[in-house]
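Quick review question:
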């Protein structure tokens, strides 16, 4: 019998132990082993009941996603059929849920007759997060056990639920409060108890679901509409629950399979599964041993108590790591500490923290005005004004102050990390850690690897990011790294399109409807027109001297003192959160168009979409070609986690793969011709993009070739 599932007998109980580390993924080997072990138990007349347990810390993590994405889930024995076989067992089956039971793992437990769990166990159906629905009976069995309303919330959120809540709802039959080491023995005792009582086998086919009515489903759809905008799978999950309310189990399972297969064929599922794998690949650094010994991170210093520094400090306090927050002036320090406490108190009012937790986290952040207080910290993160001279002064001081082996990190969003490192005598200890604002909320952490950054520094910061619940992506050194460098041509076209005759409202609508969290004019207003202007002034060789007409509209707004939301006027006029058109933008654009010899015209939605997104894809290809990004998928992770790019599009590079790289190249070449000098300047196709398109390849294939 396969070692993927171990079989043993204890008195009249058969024990099937899932033994496929690390997560007991339900790939072909484990499915086959379960089937074989079950057959052995059923054929043995001495066996009265079966227990399915786990040899690991969790029960079962669900489908083997790698096999799943490759279509291997269609290989016999298929999970849906296997679970029907278990559900129809003539002998009672007890699932011993010792830890996480997710996706197919929870579906396995649901197909059993009885479920016993540890108090720490959690169960969930997270398939919606990879663009699909539970395809092995989860949407049909779960509502029969816990009711349609709770099941609907579980399948559309994907969030795991505690064993205690599931016991209250009816999906868990018993919770074992003893020591975890005794759990399997307790499950066997439970099975013996059931056989002694002649407890019946329980099939979900014998249960019905009370229909909460059309009004419940309508209101539920409305309640999640904003969060699930553009996604395909949430609606399919809801439809499955509706089916469970109306049809017998066998017919419901057939409909679930039909809707599952419809999800699998969508670009949404391909995109969401792409991001799933991309996030896991992002922490693997070519040429660096993943077992590189790490430096300890037990204490942290942060320089700058402003919005960014305070947010960064909260990340560490949230996981119990003490922070020393340094400022140069007392009032700035007190203001920063006050904002941190206020942020925590807001969370407490929303029920996310207790008052005791607020005090505990605030106490972990100690203010200081003296660099000497950073002498013994394990890592210092500089979060001062984005100015090279200031940052170099800070790092020169840190070089003299910090202990040997301390990691010196800069939170710069655009500046040269190697130049900053050169201001110290230990460039191997220097790295970029680009947090995104608000730093205590945004998931992305762009880690900038300098030319001399030591491997253990790099791997330590990747691990540290995971500890503070960030998504780390490594970038090389160039202006703007991956995220902001790609953002520049993305935002460039929005400004230029306004000059050519498109309204900010039209641009925003096109991009929002396509799936972005907000359109580019709104994003520019939110970030601050002054921020972009000052960035351009600090890098004039990059932004000026070629056809820089695209900067004209924003520069004009800056000259008027209209910086966006912060001043109440930019591309729009703001009153609190409400905004309306700024008629001055139309007149500014018209005057600048005449000045630059640009003929204003009606611009199609398709042109807006192509001119905003395709230069971003093109820049991504160039970033990839230069080695600034290790993988095209790393670029996608950055844009989905840091820039509001819709996960159901999978990031710009995945989107390019979906529509075809030849489509992107053809459009770029069209605008290169159509837009005259501006097109010749800004729409030159990246050599890598052109080569891949000509070879009929995708960025996914490029990543695979580079990894092989």
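Suggested answer, residue by residue:
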């Amino acid at each position: 019998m396969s070692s993927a599932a171990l079989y043993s007998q204890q008195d009249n109980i058969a024990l099937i132990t899932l033994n496929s580390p690390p997560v007991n993924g339900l790939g072909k080997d484990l499915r086959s082993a379960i089937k074989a072990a079950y057959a052995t138990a059923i054929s043995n007349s001495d066996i009265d009941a079966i227990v399915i347990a786990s040899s690991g810390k969790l029960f079962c993590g669900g489908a083997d996603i790698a096999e799943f994405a490759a279509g291997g889930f269609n290989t016999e024995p298929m999970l849906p059929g296997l679970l029907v076989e278990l559900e129809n067992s003539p002998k009672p089956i007890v699932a011993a849920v010792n830890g996480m039971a997710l996706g197919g793992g929870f579906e396995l437990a649901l197909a059993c007759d009885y479920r016993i769990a540890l108090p720490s166990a959690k169960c969930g159906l997270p398939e919606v997060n990879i663009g699909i629905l539970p395809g092995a009976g989860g949407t049909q069995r779960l509502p029969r056990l816990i009711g349609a309303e709770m099941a609907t919330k579980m399948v559309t959120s994907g969030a795991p639920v505690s064993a205690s809540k599931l016991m209250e709802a009816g999906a868990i039959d018993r919770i074992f409060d003893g020591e975890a080491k005794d759990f399997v023995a307790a499950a066997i005792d439970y099975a013996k108890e059931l056989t002694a009582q002649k407890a019946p086998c329980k099939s979900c086919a014998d249960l019905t679901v009370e229909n909460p009515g059309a009004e419940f489903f309508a209101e539920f759809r409305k309640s999640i509409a904003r969060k699930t905008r553009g996604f395909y799978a949430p609606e399919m999950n809801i439809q499955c629950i509706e089916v469970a309310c109306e049809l017998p189990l066998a017919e419901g399972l057939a409909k679930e399979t039909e809707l599952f297969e419809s999800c699998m064929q969508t670009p949404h599922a391909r995109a969401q599964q792409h991001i799933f794998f991309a996030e896991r690949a992002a922490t693997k650094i070519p040429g660096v041993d993943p077992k590189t010994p790490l430096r300890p991170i037990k204490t942290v210093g942060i320089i700058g108590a402003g919005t960014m520094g305070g947010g960064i400090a909260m990340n560490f306090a949230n996981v119990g790591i003490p922070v020393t927050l340094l400022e140069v002036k007392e009032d700035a320090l007190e203001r920063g500490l006050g904002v941190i406490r206020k942020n925590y108190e807001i969370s407490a009012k929303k029920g996310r923290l207790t008052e005791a937790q607020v005090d505990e986290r605030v106490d972990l952040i100690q203010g200081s005005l003296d660099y000497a207080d950073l002498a013994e910290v394990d890592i210092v993160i500089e979060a001062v004004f984005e100015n090279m001279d200031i940052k170099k002064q800070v790092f020169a001081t840190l070089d003299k102050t910090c202990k040997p082996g301390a990691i010196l990190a800069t939170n710069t969003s655009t500046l040269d990390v190697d130049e900053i490192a050169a201001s110290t005598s230990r460039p191997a200890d220097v790295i970029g850690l680009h947090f995104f604002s608000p730093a205590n909320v945004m998931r992305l952490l762009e880690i900038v690897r300098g030319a001399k950054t030591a491997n253990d520094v790099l791997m330590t910061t990747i691990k540290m990011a995971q500890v503070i619940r960030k998504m780390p992506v490594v970038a090389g050194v160039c202006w703007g790294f991956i995220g902001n460098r790609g953002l520049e041509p993305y935002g460039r076209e929005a400004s230029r399109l306004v000059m050519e005759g498109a309204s900010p409202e039209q641009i925003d609508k096109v991009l929002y409807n396509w799936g972005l969290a907000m359109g580019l004019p709104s994003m520019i207003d939110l970030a601050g027109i002054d921020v972009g202007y000052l960035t351009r002034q600090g890098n004039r060789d990059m932004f000026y001297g070629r056809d820089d007409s695209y900067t004209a509209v924003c520069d004009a707004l800056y000259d008027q003192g209209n910086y966006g939301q912060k001043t109440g006027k930019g591309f729009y006029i703001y009153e609190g959160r409400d905004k309306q058109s700024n008629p001055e933008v139309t007149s500014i654009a018209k005057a600048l168009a005449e000045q630059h010899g640009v003929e204003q015209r009606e611009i199609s939605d398709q042109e807006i979409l192509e001119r905003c997104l395709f230069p971003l894809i093109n820049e991504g290809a160039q970033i990839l070609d230069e080695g600034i990004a290790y993988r095209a998928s790393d670029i996608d992770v950055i844009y989905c986690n840091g820039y509001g790019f819709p996960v159901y599009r999978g990031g710009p590079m995945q989107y390019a793969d979906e529509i075809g790289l030849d489509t992107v190249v053809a459009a770029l070449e069209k605008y290169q011709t159509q837009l005259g000098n501006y097109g010749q300047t800004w729409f030159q196709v990246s050599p890598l993009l052109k080569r891949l398109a000509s070879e009929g390849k995708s960025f996914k294939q490029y990543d695979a070739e580079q990894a092989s």
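Why it works: The longest strand covers residues 5-10. The mean pLDDT is 95.
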